[in-house]
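Lab meeting, action items carried over

1. Structure of the two-component assembly. Owner: GW. Status: complete.
Input record:
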Amino acid sequence: MSEDDHARDALTGVAAGRRRRRGGAERPVVPKAEFASYYGKPVIKPPTWRTLDIGGYLYLGGLAGASSVLAAGAELSGRHRLARVSRIGSFVAIVISGVALVHDLGRPERFINMLRVFKFSSPMSVGSWLLSAYGPPCGAAAFSAVTGRLPHVGTAGAMAAALIGPGVAAYTGVLLADTAVPAWHEGHRELPYLFVSSAAVAAGGLGLLAAPLDEALPARRLAVAGSVAELLAAHRMRGRMGIVAEAYRTGRAGRLTRTAEALTAAGAVAAVLGWRNRLISAAAGVALLTGSAFTRFGVFDAGMISASDPVYTVLPQRDRLRAR
Amino acid sequence: MAQRMGFFTDTSVCIGCKACEVACKIWNNLPEDGLNLTGMSYDNTEKLDANTWRHVAFIEQRKPLAWQEPGVEHAGPVPPLSTPPDTAPMTPMTPGEPGDLRWLMSSDVCKHCTVAACLDVCPTGALFRTEFETVVVQADVCNGCGYCIPACPFGVLDQRKEDGRAWKCTLCYDRIGDGLEPACAKACPTDSIQYGPLDELRERADARVARLNDAGITDARLYLADTDNGIRGAGAFFLLLDDPEVYGLPPDPIATTLDLPAMWRHAVIAAAGLLSAGLIASVGRRP
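Predicted assembly:
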C-alpha cells in the first residue's frame, strides 16, 4: 500500500490495515488492527529537536556523568591515569553537550532563561540546574588533571562531580519519558535504567580505550555490568510497550537499535576476553562507545517515528479505554 | 481569581466556513503559513500549529446523518488532483451513485487543560495559567527549547520557524480581560463555537447532546467535558459525531506529568545504581 493510498483511505475516517514490516523473525505484538485517523495525520507533534543536538546530548551527557563516577572510583583506588582520562573525558563531553543544548534552542541568546525558575514538574528545568551544578566541579577536576595544579580543588571537584554525574545521566530518561511521544512515554519505567546503563557502557568504553591495561579493571567491570543492564532494560522496555515497540524495529531506529545491541554485546565480550591485551581492550572500548551512541540515537529516532504515525498514539489509548 | 472561562465547540452545527480560522489569524496577527491544496476534503489548513490556532477539520463519510438523504455518493478512492477528467472514475460533475453521505466539520483549538503538560514541562516559566484558568505562552520569556511541543497530548503547540519560539491559542487573553469574547467565537456564524463560563457551557452541552440523542443522532457525544480523564478536564471541550480519532483527536489523552513522581523515583534509583556500580567496580587496589 503506497503512502498515497494510505492517505486516501482515511477519507472515510478509517485507515485499515497495518503496513507490513520487513523481517519475519519477530511477529507484531498486535497482529492486525483497524484504527481511525484524520487522513493519516499524526495526533501529536513530533519534537522539533535536532537529532544531532539532542541525540548527541543524550549520549555525551551520559558519558560525562558516568565518567565522573568512574574517575572518582579510580581516584579512591589509586588508579590515577584512569582517573585522569575519565576526568578529562567527562569535561569535554559536558562542554560539547552544553554547546549542543544551547544550539538547539529556538532562541539561543535566551538560554539563561532556563535558570529563571526551578520546577520539579519540568525535567528540563531540573536538568538545567543539574548541569549548572555539575559543570564547574567537573571543570575543576579536568583543569587539575590537565595542568597538575590545585590538586585538592581537583579532587574535591571530582568527588562533587561523581555525586551529581549520575543525576545528569539518569534525568534524561525522564526528560524523554515526560512527553506524549509513545515510544518514550510508554518506556517511562525503564528509560532511566536504560540510560544510566548506556552511560556506564560509554564511560567504561572510554576507560578501556584510553587508560593503560593495568588500571583499566574498573572500566572493564563497569562496561560489562552496564552492557548486561542495558540489554536487559531495553528488552524489558520493548516487551511492555505492545504495538509501540514496533517503532524500535522500524527504519533507521531499528537499524540503530540492532547495531547498538550487537556492538554493546560484542564490546562486553571483548572487554572480558581481552583483559590482558591492550589492542583488544581498546577495540572493545571503541565498540562500547559506539554502541552507547547508537542506543541513544535509536531511542531518539524511535520517538520520532512513533510521534509521526497516529497508530502509535491512537491504538494504545483505545486499548486503555477498553480496559477501563 | 475570575471564573474559569472556556470554549464549547458544538460540531453538529459547524458549517465549515472557516470564519474562526480567519478571525483568529487577523486578531492575533498570525503569519500566513502556506496556501496549499491538500486533497483532504475542504481542509487545506491540515492542523493546528504555531501560526494556526483554530483548525477546521472536514471528514466525508458513507454514513447517514440522522434521516438526511443527500442524494450524492463519492464511492471509491478520490483520484489525485492531477488526474485528467476523462480518465477519472468520478468528477464533481459525475459524482457516482446516490447513497449515504455525511460531512463532518469541526473547529479544533487548544484545550486549555486543567492539568496542562505544556505548562508543567516549560523550563522557563514562559507558559503560565491566567486568572481565567487558561494557558498562555509569554513570547518574551520563551527561549524556544521546544519541550512543550511533544509534551502536548493534542499536538497543539508548534515552533514558529522564523523566530524559534513556541506559539499557541491564548483564548484571546487580550480580549477576554476586557469582557470581549475570543475572536473565533465572535466570528462564528452558527454559534458552533460558544464562549463563556465553563460551568454554564457544560450545562448547555449536556442539554444539547441529550436533544441530539433524542432526535436520533445517537453518534453525538461530548469530548473532554468531564474531569475524569487524563488531563482532569479541559477549558475547551467538544460535541462530536464520531470517535475523537476520526477528527484527529486522541481518544484518551493524558498529561504525562501526572506520572512524574514515579518517573523521578525510577531516575533516583537508577542514579544511585550508577554511583554504586562505579564505586564497586573500583574495589581493590591496582595490581
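2. GW to write a short summary for the group page. Key points so far: Chain B has one domain: 5-63+101-257. The first strand of chain B starts at residue 5 and ends at 10.
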